[in-house]
Amino acid sequence: MEPYMGNTSPSEHLDKYITWINLNEESHALLCMLFSMNLGGYIRVWFHNLPTGSISSFQDLSNRFVGQFAEEKPVRKPMDSLKSVRQCKTKSLHGYIKRFNEAVL
């Protein structure tokens, strides 16, 4: 499973994580401890900076995670934004494709 880097929905990541763990009995402590292994970059720093004893359950951690990173999920751009991307006669096809892909994402 890919680490969460802030470029997808945090709710979707949590669903995938819980499914990935696939425990017969939910152990909130284990879910919380293993969750940090599935975070990357500044998201992992956020997790490790949570005050000791500030999380009472995995649900509490889930709520904080989604609340903290809900703004990070990608916003779909309207199709009209692609109309402004044009290949200039003096620019390379590679440059045009790069700008097009950036506009799509």
Protein architecture, described:
The protein is mainly α. The chain has helices at residues 10-21, 28-35, 41-48, 58-69, 93-104. The longest helix is centred in the N-terminal third of the chain and has 12 residues, at 10-21. The mean pLDDT is 79.
Summarize the structure.
It contains 5 helices and no strands. With 105 residues, the chain is mainly α.
How do the helices and strands line up, and which of them pair or pack?
Blueprint: H1 10-21, H2 28-35, H3 41-48, H4 58-69, H5 93-104
Fill in the keyword field for this structure:
single chain; 105 residues; mainly alpha; 5 helices
Portion of residues within helices:
40-55%
Average pLDDT for all residues: 79
Shape verdict: elongated
Percent of sequence in beta strands:
under 5%
Please outline the major beta sheet: none
Radius of gyration: 19 Å
CA(first)-CA(last) distance? 22 Å
Instruction: Give the SSE order as H and E letters.
Output: HHHHH
Number of helices: 5
Per DSSP E runs of 2 or more residues, the count of β-strands stands at 0
How would you name the oligomeric state of the polypeptide chains in this document?
single chain
- Low-confidence segments, given as residue ranges, are none
